[in-house]
Design goal:
Layout lengths: L2 E3 L1 E10 L1 E7 L2 E6 L4 E7 L7 E7 L4 E2 L3 E4 L2 E8 L10 E6 L7 E7 L12 E2 L3 E4 L11 E5 L7 E6 L24 E5 L2 E5 L5 E5 L7 E6 L9 E6 L9 E6 L13 E5 L7 E6 L19 E2 L7 E5 L5 E5 L7 E7 L11 E6 L5 E5 L2 E8 L3
Antiparallel strand pairs: 1-27, 2-30, 3-4, 4-5, 5-6, 7-9, 8-9, 9-10, 10-11, 12-13, 13-14, 14-15, 16-17, 17-18, 18-19, 20-21, 21-22, 22-23, 24-25, 25-26, 26-27, 28-29, 29-30
């Protein structure tokens, strides 16, 4: 049976397992994890009775498991997925969703055919897309900013990478005996970009001049930390006079067998020297420090949240509501643990977001999405 504290199930959508969900007004966009399923669009004006409006597919060998929408524009990623990829091309699909029931492709922006991996995670503010593409001449994914003022003709504004990635530019590549660099998830707040970089930590970039992003600071806890950095999420207002960054490790692709991944709290008041001040782990899932199977612990926080309470997708632990009002002592104030999907041994909560009404959308990477109301004290 599902377990809940300070939360309640509003409705369930029996959709294919997904990589991301995003709400724009009363329209919900859901990206599937595995081809040929791509993106599904739902009307959630009545959240107890979601209505499917449209579906998009992708060719086998590619997946489109991330989605963002704003100002009538929907962006999805295209990335190689296992075997069988044809010449479809990695990059972004940019759609007109002014009528969400009839999405229209505006353009397919592609990375270099010589590289072809595509784009992984990204964010979008209605004009600029902050993306993680593969790029010709570079090892691994880099950070790139695209201007979508004219969505039919995306223009690269700027890019940034860890020195050593640009081998075609003559840089020495120093990671032959380590995992290759991989920009994972750029998030903007003001004139800063907070960029997670997988097993190479996270970086704070000054994008006052978007054409020339400048490094402010970077923290790489690997290889001491066996987990990859998934998201570096800035809190938009000071807490107790401090600027706070929530950094989530993902419980996959471990460097070695280890206990479940958790999340970090950093004080970035002096942003050139990020200071770790706390961690959070769901109570009871690391009883003795022994290694556990992957996808037991942390995955990611919602990019959207209200106040100091951040919804997290915590893989096998479902939805967790974490309050960072005291950044030295983050605490759980609610949770929702769904039943495992039919035929699955346990849940695998992969992504979470909220809408303007405060409703939470929690998607399982195997099957299904839950719409949840929250009422933490």
């Amino acid at each position: 049976m599902a377990r809940a504290h300070n939360t309640g199930l509003v409705s369930h959508i029996d959709c294919h397992g997904g990589g991301q969900a995003w709400a724009d007004g009363t329209t919900l966009y859901v990206s599937a994890m595995r081809p040929p399923d791509g993106t599904s669009i739902y009307d959630v004006a009545d959240p107890r009775h979601p209505k499917l409006l449209a579906t998009l597919q992708v060719p086998m060998g590619w997946h489109s498991h991330k989605v963002r929408a704003q100002n009538g524009i929907m962006i999805v990623n295209y990335e190689k997925f296992r075997e069988g990829a044809d010449d479809f091309g990695g990059g972004l699909g940019i759609f007109d969703v002014s009528n969400p029931a009839r999405p229209k492709l505006i353009t397919h922006w592609k990375v270099s055919n010589a590289v072809g991996g595509g784009v992984h995670r990204f964010s979008f503010d209605g004009r600029y897309a902050y993306i993680s593409p593969t790029a010709e001449g570079y090892v691994g994914n880099i950070m790139m900013i695209l201007d979508l003022a004219d969505p039919a003709r995306p223009q690269e504004v700027g890019r940034w990478w860890i020195p050593g990635q640009h081998v075609a530019g003559g840089e020495h590549y120093p990671w032959d005996n380590y995992t290759r660099p991989r920009c994972h998830h750029p998030l903007r707040l003001g004139n800063r970009l907070y960029v997670s970089y997988w097993h190479h930590g996270f970086y704070i970039l000054d994008i006052s001049d978007m054409s020339r992003p400048q490094l402010v600071a970077g923290i790489n806890p690997g290889p001491a930390d066996p987990h990859p950095t998934h998201t570096a999420l800035p809190i938009p207002v000071p807490i107790k006079g401090r600027n706070i960054l929530v950094v989530a490790d993902e419980d996959v692709a471990k460097l070695r067998p280890s206990p479940p991944a958790y999340t970090w709290i950093y004080d970035i008041s002096e942003e050139t020297q990020p200071l770790p001040i706390a961690t959070f782990q769901v109570d009871g899932i690391d009883p003795d420090g022994e290694p556990q199977e992957h996808m037991t612990g942390c995955h990611q926080p919602s990019e959207r949240f209200n106040g100091t309470i951040i919804p997290f997708a915590w893989f096998a632990q479902g939805l967790r509501l974490i309050d960072v009002a005291d950044p030295f002592r983050p605490r759980e104030v609610g949770f929702y643990e769904p039943d495992p999907p039919a035929g699955c041994r346990r849940v695998s909560s992969n992504d979470v977001t909220i809408d303007d009404r405060g409703l939470v959308y929690l998607i399982d990477r195997q099957q299904g999405l839950d719409i949840i109301e929250c009422f933490p004290r």
